[in-house]
Amino acid sequence: MESTLDFATYTLWSAYGTIAFFILAILGFIFKWGFRFRFVGATGFMIVLTIGLFGLSLGLFGRPTIPNATRFNLVYDNGANQAVIAVSSDITKEQLEATLQQAAIDLFSYGRSANDGDAKLTVRARAQYHGDGFTYPIYLGQLRRSLFQQQDDNIDLQIFNKEFARLKSLEKK
Questions:
Q1: pLDDT for 126-152, tens place per residue?
Q2: 89 and 33 in one domain?
Q3: Total of domains in the chain
Q4: Do the domain assignments include residue 30?
Q5: Do 152 and 146 touch, CB atoms closer than 8 A?
């Protein structure tokens, strides 16, 4: 979902308003206006509003979108270094690569930790085959990337060709 809000611009205009209310409050005390304390309250409110807008301008980061990535559902996430996503059973290898990269970007967080000493986030992709009254999960690939670096150049992407062939042969039956 694309956000069209520009909090940096709102922060700037809110800062201008804060300065204007501060000047009015000073003028109110100089000229002993009866409503000078209302300007003090408005100035305090504008300061809080400006700080909040500044925080929002820092916190809403857009995530890059990988071309050719398909939709996926998060099936499992231990909050540390492992996650599993579900993809469609008619996905291609190129789409799976892009989807794994997109999932790794979407699931990256500085709050993740390495439970077992492995400082890599592992994202596995699986498809499901429904047949013979059972549902078979088939793992099609995995991606391993750093838990601590957002721009990781050492991504280990594996596509399981045997599982792709197995999925295609099960779908033909």
A1: 999 887 788 889 999 999 988 887 777
A2: no
A3: 2
A4: yes
A5: yes
Three-class HEC string of the chain: CCCCCCHHHHHHHHHHHHHHHHHHHHHHHHCCCCCHHHHHHHHHHHHHHHHHHHHHHHHCCCCCCCCCCCCCEEEEECCCCEEEEECCCCCCHHHHHHHHHHHHHHHCCCCCCCCCCCCEEEEEEEEEEEECCEEEEEEEEEEEEECCCCCCCCCEEEECHHHHHHHHHHHHC
Domain residues for the domain of 38 are 7-59
95 and 82 in contact (C-beta within 8 Å)?
Answer: no
* Within-domain flag for 53: yes
Q: pLDDT tens digits, residue range 28-44?
A: 999 999 999 999 999 99
pTM of the shown model: 0.64
Q: How far is CA 33 from CA 22, 36, 47, 111, 152, in A?
A: 14, 5, 22, 52, 60
Distance CA 155, CA 102 (A): 12
